[in-house]
Design goal:
2 copies of one chain form a homodimer.
Chain A (H helix, E strand, L loop, with lengths): L10 H12 L3 E4 L4 E4 L9 E8 L16 E7 L5 H11 L5 E6 L2 H16 L4 E6 L19 H14 L4 H13 L1 E9 L17 E4 L10 E4 L3 H15 L7 E8 L5 H17 L3 E8 L8 E9 L2 H8 L2 E2 L4 E2 L1
Parallel strand pairs in A: 3-4, 3-5, 5-6, 10-11
Antiparallel strand pairs in A: 1-2, 2-4, 7-8, 7-12, 8-9, 10-12, 13-14
Chain lengths: 331, 331
């Protein structure tokens, strides 16, 4: 295993210390392991809190800031944050208008965020939860009851964050988050495995000419293994798999995320985006907004995921709203 | 070789088509292979043009936009753009105030940009050139007479771009670019090689426990191979190597770029940044601004580079000026 770390045990605290030094505009509580905005809102607003295992950076800490999350709580690599940690995040940022938990659908995350919501309720903090389960690859998995949460998390956090910024009430922000999740589908392909610092060896093995179709963000098995093929054929399969599950028709618009899993060159992600664009155009579906890059990674996994979120005027308007976070920034 | 491509021959046109689809705010000439801003300036301004081999994305196309480059011309992977291509870029964006070429110091780039400058001069386009040669690892290399140009390119393009935006004359913008390059030093470490689509196999081989110290952005050999060590020891060597060559003293401020080479997780880059921050703090040097992420990559190479640019009030003020490009964006 070759990694730029000090010890496998210290990866998270060391990375958090580096994150704190790199982003002095944010508050990083190294003991509680909570990243939050430094400024409390002048007027109470719904606070967005997300979190999950580390190793998916920039998710979630990279999305803390005006227009998106209020706080993030990273667990150890590929491990859920603990309930007290999630509670600490909620306590750090609630301002009287309630807290929305954005939770990727993995058994540990769901359980620990639920426990944290109960603890928060005991303290009089109102909590609502949006569950993200956009990955069409598998219905259940080793880590999940139901579908896994992946790339749609970015859209949910961006859009619900923009709505919260405008002072919308908790129920409305939660409903928008659920609507965005329901309007999103993802599918991923791995060309190579990730290696966690703790394991020290690749999470799975792939022959030189095979890919894992439908891989999860922790390297969980997908649907099957197939031979590597030219990008346009791979993309056709990914797009068609999503469309088979998604209610998209000619004339529809989408937000498209072509996401690198961590070790795939941006040059290749642009090749993929070009093929996605062409394939959707054949179906009469227009990409209204897009992101191409590393947003929901899996350490050093090679491959990509595609997320399509159906757009409508409200979705596009919230997408275009200003955001100022380490990983997503526009005005 | 596992890559998300159609054919090795079509990587660049396919990626450019994808880039064009992803960034409709920019103009992509697929025939000339030039990416440029779509809007001509209302008042003539110095136009910044850069380029080089592909495989280093987001460099350079990802830095085209208000506040930074006016145009970029990507060559084939790890191959210089041809003179006619550079000329086409200059023609596309010059507005009467001259053109500044930002050229990384590689023999092919230097030659082809020089030829393009001569062709432009014949058309009455005034050209000045800033040569970037910030890599302290080697004095000459297989690809270079003199030091190689690497991470400082980002600072030169950002800062000179900001000055050009304000209407400064060509000589002044060129002088600022040269000053930023002279104030910058870089050093890189590879944990693993890159594979170009054309070669189809890794550019070099490293034993499981060794790193290439001082590697170049095309995988050129560095100073030596050493055992992999904990991040704080690696970073100490990188920082000390740069400081041995750089006129930095206690009380100085720097812009620090911790740059991923393409396949290194962001989690690890934050570990590295934390160690850089701590090591510099011991020397009384303060990081005033920073970037942590993939900015000057080498396809799927694992590793990182560190670039330190000495800051002063003008440098910081230009750094903070608005920029709106695919890869660098703030206001």
């Amino acid at each position: 295993m070759k990694k730029l770390i000090n010890t496998p045990e210290s990866v998270l605290p060391d990375a958090l210390a580096g994150f704190a030094a790199a982003h002095p505009e944010l508050t990083v509580d190294l003991d509680a392991r909570v990243i939050s905005r430094s400024a409390r809102p002048a007027v109470p607003k719904v606070a967005l809190v997300s979190g999950g295992g580390s190793g998916h950076e920039p998710l979630h800490a990279g999305f803390v800031g005006p227009g998106m999350l209020d706080a993030a709580c990273p667990g150890e690599v590929f491990t859920s944050p603990v309930p007290d940690q999630v509670l600490a995040a909620a306590q750090a940022v609630h301002s009287g208008a309630g807290v929305l938990f954005v939770v990727k659908n993995y058994t540990g995350d769901v359980m620990n965020f639920r426990l944290a919501a109960e603890l928060a309720a005991e303290e009089g903090i109102e909590v609502a939860t949006v569950l993200v389960d956009d990955d069409v690859a598998v219905e259940d998995s080793t880590w999940t009851a139901g579908r896994r949460g992946t790339g749609a998390t970015v859209a949910v956090e961006k859009l619900a964050g923009a709505l919260a910024e405008r002072g919308a009430p908790l129920a409305e922000v939660a409903a928008l988050g659920a609507r965005v999740n329901a309007a999103s589908r993802s599918f991923a392909i791995a060309l190579g495995p990730a290696t966690t610092p703790a394991a020290g060896k690749p999470g799975f093995e792939l022959p030189d000419d095979e890919i894992e179709v439908g891989v999860g963000i922790h390297g969980e098995p997908g649907r099957r293994r197939e031979p590597l093929r030219p990008a346009h054929l791979l993309v056709a399969e990914v797009v068609d798999t999503i469309l088979a599950d998604h209610h998209l028709a000619a004339g529809d618009e989408v937000i498209a995320l072509v996401n690198g899993m961590g070790a795939t060159p941006l040059l290749e992600l642009y090749v993929v985006f070009g093929e996605v664009h062409a394939r959707l155009a054949e179906r009469g579906i227009r990409i209204a907004r897009n992101l191409v890059g590393n947003y929901v990674t899996s350490l050093d996994m090679a491959g990509f995921s595609l997320t399509l979120t159906r757009a409508d005027p409200q979705v596009l308007e919230l997408w275009d709203a200003p955001v100022a976070t380490p990983a997503l920034r526009w005005s």
